[in-house]
Fold this protein.
Amino acid sequence: MRRTENRLMLLNRSAISTAVLLALYGAAVGVAHAQEGADAAASAAPAATATANANANANGDNINQVVVTARRRAELIQDVPGAVTAISGAELEKQAVPDITALTDSTPNTTLKASRGTNTTLTAFIRGIGQQDPVAGYEQGVGIYLDDVYLARPQGALTDIYDLERIEVLRGPQGTLYGRNTIGGAVKYVTRKLAPKPTLDAKLTFGNYGEKDLVVKGSMPISDILRIGATVGTFNRDGFGHNILNGRQNYNKDVVAGRVSLELTPTPELFIRLATDKTVDDSEARQGRRLTLGPAPGNIQPASGTYDTRANLYKVLGHEQQVTTEGSSLLAEYTINPTLSVKSITAYRKSKSYAPIDFDSLELPLWEAPSFYKDNQTSQEFQLTYTGDKVQGVAGLFYMKTNAYNDFDVLYNAAGGLSLLTHDDIDSKTWAAYADASYNVTDAFSVTVGGRYTEDERRAEIFKQTYLGLNDSPRLGNAGAVAFGAPNTNLGKDALHRTDKKFTPKLGFGYKLTPEHNLYTTWSKGFKGGMFDPRMDLAATGGPNSVVSLAKRRGVDPEEVSSIELGVKSSMNGGRLQTNAAVFYTDYKNVQIPGSIPTYAADGSVNGFAGSLTNAGKAKIKGLELEAVAYLTNQLSVNAMYSYIDAKYNEWMVANGASLVNIAGSTEFQNTPKNSANIAINYDWPVSIMGRSGSMSFMNSVSYKSKVYQTEIARSTGVATLDATIPGNLMLAQDGYALWDAGVVWTSSDRKIQVGLHGRNLADKRYKTAGYNFSGFFNTVTAFYGDPRTVRATLNVKF
């Protein structure tokens, strides 16, 4: 751990975990959104959960009262005609899960994980669609939202959870209400409103690997109409491994964060909230474990420990690894009458990252990438919501302006050592108008119609230059660097400019078969913005004005999806048995395939690398999602989840000499296991401790994922230019694995004290979650792994 003083602290790391079990209701229905009873007083939207809350109001009175805002208006989760999973903040805290990535264990067809090299950069995939490269210019395929504010970049999107009302995971394209870059789905953080009376909570966590976390949050009314609240957290843990050469921690954690909010209610009809937050991640750079021998003559063996490394790069621009994320938002809601309301959401966010990336994970400076990222965004959204007896709907206007910037060198020990700088400065402007409305034709039958028109403008500045020696380039701190030849790419924002316009419609039907069973079908479209290759190397494609280079300068077209979904949502026996099921089919066009390929000198040696972003792919995706929860008794609940996905490229064209070859048969979808399942059993019983009444909860869950590929190329293609990448891709694939979690928690009857003991990955399974495959560069293949067995004790006190 490094020092944490003199940093603005803002944010709280709650936890997240879900326990959703496999219970197929009948043979054809069942995607279940298990629900916790509404913990209502704190917010207009009751706490929602799609995993079972073992403590979910044992009498069952409020089991099914789960309210979400998946359609930008409050409604019961069982009434939403789409696949939505939600979990409440109370359940997240109770299960003491480290972060949002734990939703992967129990949410169908969803992968959320830390990107390679940091704790706080998020990689998200839903139903096979996502994006894992955080370089400026690449767009996400899954939208991440904090209180309806879109987070344009993945850096800092994986944060500790605090002041949380719930998390919602929306699966399938959300092009109508959420817009571009939500073609796979969306993940929403929804924070809670401040309580009307003074509150003060403290949560303390101790665990193995030296874990010590402290979160303190409180709020108080300043007057009858004004409230203020704040949360501060510090999260610290030793590394799971070490650098075996210099002793540095690897996979450690050193994060401080916090949030301050001010809420004003001048009249019963008007609510205003101003909120600001900041997170600072000062953890050591997360270095990978090399899976291959080092180059001759040393042929260094891989480190023996899964979490160990030999990496030697730890600074960028004089800074060790650091990710800082901060932002502010202003929300204003006004209720015009009982059926009509308006909302305004104004937000500004920015982040900065110093990321020393050591691709080769050796003490030798063979293949390294000191990187600096920064971004900022400004957004404004207006919404009008109507909730009548026959018609319910929302319409809105959205505008966002963003900038994403990065400088990174690639240092490689070839021909005496070279440094290749890539500089990207990307501006985007997006505006959209949208509407979504449902009409109740009868008490049983409803029709939903929606559409969104988006105009997306992008300008990019891209510069690539090779410098002599193994020192950094001028932009990364070496003012005396000597350029080697002319720039590979030197294009300003006047040269790289594109505007994409798209209308994304939606049509849905709902039919209440019986009061307990809701059938729905939805057809929807979505798109992910067009973009320029941030690693564009025009020297490698014949100069800036060659036919190939001119094509690259036009950029790649937006990805497009068209999806149809059929589902059934059921709530029986007073909500004690809830099942939801969905089947879906997605037509995926213009798939943007990012990547990097070697470039070669005249003597045939590797002298650099170039981007290979293309609209190479077309794919078909189909799948099944089942969730269920059963409250068997007042004390015992069982949860289940099962998902299946068949995602296949049917076209992926690559150049092979003068011709194009379709290599689709040699590819797989990355971060998309074909089968996923989870089963959880929760049992509550009354227990008094030291004369204080309360309940004890035992939580036990097992999750499973089948084989996962970290990159798309999975088998030999027969194309010479790609053969070098094949062995590394196979090394990075993770065979099917299961994880076992368990915990026991005592909660006092007044809910003021909660004590827990929690274990995750109790079987201590080692499994790969990410990696770098540069087997064409010094035989470099490095892997990153999920957490080992962790055990933590928690104490939560409400004063």
In short: The mean pLDDT is 86. The CA atoms of residues 280 and 324 lie 5 Å apart. The first helix runs from residue 89 to 95. DSSP finds four helices and 43 strands in the chain.
